[in-house]
Amino acid sequence: MSEISLGSWLTYSGGVEADATRACTEAAFDAGINFFDTANVYGRGAAESAWGEILSARPRDSYVLATKVFFPMSDDPADQGLSPAQIARQIDASLTRLKTDHVDLYQAHRFDASVPIEDTIEAFQKVVEQGKARYLGFSEWTPEQIRTAIDIAGPGLFVSSQPQYSMLWQAPEAEVFPLSAANGISQIVWSPLAQGVLTGKYEPGRPAPRGSRFASDTMAVSKDLVYNDATLEAVQRLVPIAEEAGMSMPTLALAWVLRRGEVASAITGASRPEQVHANAAASGVDLPDDLLAAVDRALGDAPVTGPVLAPGADAGIKRR
Questions:
Q1: E-strand spans in the chain?
Q2: Are 198 and 166 in contact (CB under 8 A)?
């Protein structure tokens, strides 16, 4: 699948009009992007429905489609999590919205500490056995949760991990990356541009611009850790490095992610076709060792190296 993928978290779930969603999706195909990542909770089905309308017009083997399950889908307290009943219900609902008979990758959006892990594993295995998903993955699981799942079901259960990862959020490198690599699990990372901070558009000493993601407490993830003057100053030190290398800041940040660890694809968001093409340009970009060293020096101690869980992740494990 393509090294750069297109996600739909804050865009195609309702933040971007239908015409722009279609334009960005078409731009993705034009740019060589064939991997599309969504989730049932994005707009509570809106993002899946948008792509169902658009992608169903193309041959099913021309793209790789991933979705996720975990977060609440209604005000009903039972309408969430990774119980066997919820997984069975939500995979069918997702397939209906996506207008397809299968997804290529079905992912646990977070870990559910309220359900015995054996029940969750068996439910996911059943989804694959029924042909509703080709492969399975997880997002923001702790090393302990990953080890437990592997101990129960073997290393072949999951093929992918989806952690937050960027120049500014390097926490998965400590344990998740090596544990995954040892068990044949690759990484599909989210927020590789640190929610736009690594574009260099935010200036230290100034509040987040009105309308930006960091101006909203509900849209920004890990805001205090990636949006502060020390971090923004470190990012500004990257700007001349990118310029000297003849690339944009997004290209530098995305290329950096793709050359670290076992990263199969970096999920990017876009509200305009030109953003899609700009992000796709990072695929295949080589970063020499001296440039990587310069990046490390510029960042200093700004990166979060963990162990830190993403919002919504739970460290517990329930057994039968």
A1: 4-7, 35-37, 64-69, 103-108, 133-138, 160-161, 186-189, 263-268
A2: yes
For residue 294, what pLDDT is reported? Answer: 97
* DSSP 8-state symbol, 267: E
pTM, rounded to two decimals: 0.93
- Catalytic residue IDs: 42
- The three-state secondary structure class of 319 is coil
The residues of the chain scoring below 50 in pLDDT are none
CB count in 10 Å sphere of residue 243: 12
The Cα–Cα gap between 4 and 36 comes to 10
Can you give the pLDDT at residue 297? 97
Closest to 258 (Cα-Cα) out of 282, 276, 279: 282
Would you kindly state where each structural domain of the chain is located, as residue ranges?
A: 4-195+249-286
Among 41, 159, 51, 193, residue whose Cα is nearest residue 109: 41
Angle made by CA atoms 268, 272, 273, in degrees to the nearest 5: 85
**Nearest in space to 171 (alpha carbons), one of 143, 149, 193, 144:** 143
Q: What is the CATH number of domain 4-195+249-286?
A: 3.20.20.100
